[in-house]
Amino acid sequence: MPTALITGGSRGLGRALSIALAERGWELVIDGRETEALARIEAELVTSTGRIHAVPGDVSDAEHRSALAAAVSSIGGLDLLVNNASILGPSPQPRLADYPLEELRRVYEVNTLAPLALAQLLLPALRRSRGTVIDITSDAASEAYEGWGGYGSAKAALDQLSAVLAAEEPDLRIYAFDPGDMRTRMQQEAFPGDDISDRPEPHTVVPALLQLLAASPPSGRYRAADLALA
Question: What is the pTM of this model?
Fold first, then answer.
């Protein structure tokens, strides 16, 4: 049975992907900062699969990452790591001239450093399975949007980490995956007071992720919109 660790699995894209993989027989380790939301998705997936391990916590915390690695060890290995957990930073998004540096540090800790730290812990298991890492990125990593300097630069750094890790680990598949805009709480925080009902629901992006896993193309950066057209 294939195994996956999905961070930020209690809501948004992480939740949608967890449900899709569980329905396909995957054994999952998921985490999230919101204990109640994590318990709800765990109960839902246990009812349908019985193969779900929920570990509440914050990926920027080293002890929590160790707990995730222990959970992976308990299920006997790892085929897929999805670094999905992210934070936006201040809402509304400030210009760089006014960006609080402590807040920026926090954005980098969660969005950039934590995915690498988790990958470092799990690389031995991923090497054994010749597995896959998917780092969830954003178009803000490659486009200069006013007010998105903090989040966008953190994701741009994550893109580069993904690319270099792919060069250093040629036996693995390392993907930076841009899902595009989605109707999520983070998107609403980015545009407080705006109507974001025109954005697609996260579950509509999951087929592109499943396509990426099934096709197993060379490591690189992929957009959901492009995969949907392939």
Answer: 0.94
